[in-house]
Specification:
8-stranded antiparallel β-sheet, Endonuclease I-creI, homodimer, alpha+beta, Jelly Rolls, 310 residues, disordered C terminus
Chain lengths: 310, 310
């Protein structure tokens, strides 16, 4: 699957798939960089790109059998990136956009697993998927936005070895993804990571009945409840509410008890502070929550699917 | 030094010391728990404590020789905590205060280095100092507030082995600290960590000429520029601005370049989201900034002081 076959620039309730896959199937998805290959040299600036071709997400991909009320688990098996990416700034964009006087682009070659930021600064890369989502339950949201359907989550843990859980709102889920970053820190403070073209190898599973309101990321060590809203304050509130709810239901604990426990062991963090909606995450260590509420039954269902396919 | 000799409930420009110490000297400071020993059983509730005796900070301690324009570096050498602490919730307090219907207290025994939250949940402790600050440059701020002088920073990295740098605004600095937590996660979402009485062993150094606007925390791996303000959004902006400035000046890099680099390697995080001002931190890995701007000269000066004392 490649962006050349199709990409979307907004997530809405009615998306026409460019391809279909089975649950449990592994596919490769080629994603254009977030500026749609409009930045090829340092003379190409964020301020000059055609915004109609920015933040495209390859897809939508129908996941056969996914139904509203299910959860789609997308495991990121690998991300391969191209040989060069870029980082950019532009007045009014980013956390300190008021201090930026003119747009700048820096090309960043990728060599031997490091991003060559400058002669002196080489950064080990850790590629992740910036934008990943499914058809929404109603609203049409540009791919610039993160929200309950996923979208521009810019969460660095959506990386190799991890998984993102997305609530299915429409038949077939309609998965789309793009906006690969070779490296980015929490906050994405200047408004970009190292933006780059890349290929994501993923496997999608359907977890029927594991109803979720919003995206959750799974790493080896933790669950992350993601909340996106107009301000960091509101995003933090949503992520905390969702995370405490997962902890309470997952452990069979009173809500008040889970709220106190979260204050002691669950870090409230920022995914990004630069998109039209901000994204925060409540990080629940697996030491305190081994699986999501409702997940045991689904794990069995998933194994049945896997067995059928082998 | 003990809270029994004196504690303050606000940081202002004019503080009368209860004791004095030399730069380079190691002292023990006994700090009352944040509720001033008003919570001893689960029947004692946050909603019933006398607020005039809450969040006391032991001190002020004059650091001889500290002058406005200097920076005070406080190394936390050790924190010993008592055998029992507590965690509490109260309607309207904390990130989800609107969902709390009544105040609750849970006593949390500390056994063999773990906080016994419940029969099933034991949490390895990592004690830190919640409130630490110096006399302000002007305003009077209750010890509930974190701000440029330090105060209620609730930053979990102000822990054993780490250091906090505070800008000196008044002769003698006038250090005060309290509000020990046996364990707390980023966000402190329910409004408390495990609040507990404790003894902090610390050493304070004076770094003349290392002018700082706001607190910085040093861990083994990183520098953290702390920003506190009425909203998370504004606190995040301050922390990012300070951190990018440290990175630019410390590396002799153009500001724009440091801003881009920060977006790739400096996590923007939340210290706490529950105090009257919120606190965020930009985390600068030492791999990209080995020392603070202006620090080399000060390190030499500090060594001279140390030699004189031995």
């Amino acid at each position: 699957m490649s962006y050349k076959q199709g990409q979307i620039f907004s997530f809405g309730p009615n998306l026409t798939p460019i391809a279909a896959m089975d649950a449990g199937e592994t596919i490769d998805v080629v994603c254009q960089d977030s500026c749609g290959e409009q930045i090829r040299t340092e003379a190409d600036l964020l301020s000059k790109v055609d915004l109609d071709h920015v933040n495209g997400a390859t897809g939508p991909i129908e996941v056969r059998g996914a139904q509203p009320g299910d959860t789609l688990r997308v495991r990121i098996l690998d991300i391969r990136v191209e040989k060069e990416g870029y980082v950019g700034i532009e007045p009014k964009l980013g956390v300190l956009g008021d201090r930026v006087t003119e747009a700048r682009t820096r090309m960043v070659p990728i060599r031997n697993g490091t991003a060559v930021f400058s002669k002196d600064v080489r950064i080990p890369i850790r590629p992740h998927v910036g934008t990943i989502g499914v058809a929404t339950g109603g609203p049409n949201l540009s791919t610039f936005y993160p929200h309950d359907h996923g979208g521009n989550l810019d969460t660095k843990e959506i990386a190799k070895g991890n998984a993102v859980y997305l609530p299915v709102s429409q038949p077939g889920a309609m998965l789309a993804l793009g906006d690969i970053h070779a490296i980015m820190a929490d906050g994405e403070v200047c408004v970009t990571g190292v933006e780059i073209l890349g290929t994501v190898r993923l496997r999608a599973d359907i977890l029927p009945g594991l109803a979720m309101k919003r995206p959750v990321v799974e790493t080896r060590e933790s669950w992350m409840a993601l909340g996106s809203a107009e301000t960091l304050d509101e995003a933090a509130r949503i992520a905390t509410a969702d995370g405490v709810d997962l902890l309470a239901r997952g452990r069979g604990m009173a809500w008040e008890e889970a709220y106190m426990l979260a204050s002691l062991v669950c870090d409230l963090r920022i995914s990004q502070d630069v998109d039209p909606y901000r994204t925060c995450k409540l990080v629940i260590p697996k030491a305190y929550l081994s699986r999501l509420p409702g997940m045991a039954a689904n794990a069995r269902r998933r194994s049945r699917t896997a067995r059928r396919r082998t």
